[in-house]
Amino acid sequence: MNYTSTKTDPLKAIIVGVHLNQDDHFAYSMKELSNLAKADNIKVMAELDQNLDTFNSKTYLGKGKINEIIDLNKQNNLDLLITNDELTGSQIRNIEKITDLKVLDRTSLILDIFAQRAKSHQAKIQIQIAQLQYQLPRLRNFNDLQKDQQKGIGVNRGSGETQLELNRRNIQKKISHLKEELNNLDKINQTKQTKRNKNNIPSVALVGYTNSGKSTTLNQIIKLFNDSNNQKKVFEKNMLFATLDTSVRRISLNNNNDFILSDTVGFISKLPHNLIEAFKSTLSEAVNADLLIQVVDYSDPNFESMIDITNKVLQSININKKPMIIALNKADLVKETYPATEGNQIIYSAKDEKSIKLLVQTIENNLFKNKVNTTLLIPFDKGNILNFLKENESVNNIKYINTGIKISAKLRPESVNKFKDYIISKK
User: Which family does it belong to (predicted)?
Assistant: First the structure.
């Protein structure tokens, strides 16, 4: 499925794509494919595309383009041919036989990048499941693998080459075992989520395209509101799929309007279905969130397509109906006034302190808009209620009078119901 180079220099590749039915996103998807190749330390030497009504069932491309690839290989001594679409096993074998090039499709390239980026045990398991599911209908015999390795190209970097020597039944058993292990990890995460829900702490999930600035946004919020020493920062880097593991942080504001903020794996066009399925558990933070923040690279000319693709991925995992803020990031790179809000959109720069403060204020306005202004009278012997309100709600004033403790506070609806016997006025 995947590959490993024994060379110190990057592998040289040609990227190819079929433009079907005047797809408006085609040019951008090819640009993405080039960036994916670079992210995997592959040098793109040439690019070809072809307008067709449908993919060639045998070779993906037409005969003329295949001959062009053969000529380009002779001129550039290429290592790889990378396609912009997922191929069948027979298409891969046919192209390799004709061109004498190792073939990677878009799916296998993305899976390989994920295999390199995965850090946590959970992410590694998810990648292995997706790799094996991709591999299953494309099993190749051991002699083919040896030929690849003699060229300096191995197979299946993430899962290990010995797995390709297993028969179909053993691979299916391996998938079942990994899914069981993943389910056990999911139960642990669900327990943590249940505990947070019991504490009535609302949650917010950052979602969006890869490299849009989600991790940077999270880190800047942490820096301003939680941790000036940056001890809780998450990894961030200007590259595709820098973050695969979900990071969860509690953001504590001065008025007890605390919330849980999570950073999730980034999306991209034509994200493999098996990968989305495998990462559903990682995306559970988004599934269970009270509010989604879709972070968008506003400086990218294709940002509207990014929003559309993200929405489609969210729809595929049934979380498209949640309240969402569209956060147009990197406004410092475009000629636009920022920070600014309009409706459910905010234009901001994750590197700008005023922007981060406005973003957090926007989150507050959405999460806590149902809070009720109340006045409570708490008996002196109910000090535990006072402590709860001070720790969990926005308490504005505390006054000790003859009949008890008079408190002015903004309460969440659940607290209004919980302490209704002590509320003397509300509005």
Answer: Belongs to the TRAFAC class OBG-HflX-like GTPase superfamily. HflX GTPase family.
pLDDT for 29-40, tens place per residue? 999 999 899 988
Residue 284 to residue 269: CA distance in whole angstroms = 21
Q: Could you tell me if 95 and 81 are in contact, meaning their C-beta atoms sit under 8 angstroms apart?
A: yes
| 245 assigned to a ligand binding site | yes
Residue 210 amino acid letter: T
Q: Is 278 among the annotated ligand-binding positions?
A: no
- 215 is known to lie in a ligand binding site: yes
Q: Cβ neighbours of residue 420 under 8 Å, at least 6 residues apart?
A: none
Q: Is 11 annotated as a binding residue?
A: no
120 is in an annotated binding site: no
By CB atoms closer than 10 A (0-12, 13-18, 19+), residue 152 is middle
Distance CA 355, CA 223 (A): 13
Query: Annotation-wise, does 383 bind a ligand?
Result: no
241 known ligand binder: yes
Annotated binding residue at 350? yes
Give the count of beta carbons closer than 10 Å to the beta carbon of residue 273. Answer: 14
The reply, when asked if residue 244 is annotated as ligand binding, is yes
3 state SS of 174: helix
> Is 265 assigned a ligand-binding role in the annotation?
yes
349 known member of a binding site: yes
**211 appears as a binding residue in the annotation:** yes
Q: Say if residue 89 carries a ligand binding annotation.
A: no
Alpha-carbon gap, residue 147 to 94, rounded angstroms: 15
The answer to whether 338 is annotated as binding is no
Better-scored residue on pLDDT, 317 or 112: 112
What is the rounded CA–CA span in Å between residue 388 and residue 382? 10
pLDDT tens digit sequence for 2-11: 454 444 678 9
Q: Give the C-alpha separation, 298 to 348, whole Å.
A: 9
Q: Each residue of 177-231: pLDDT tens digit?
A: 999 998 888 787 777 666 655 566 889 999 999 889 998 999 999 988 875 545 5
SS3 60: strand
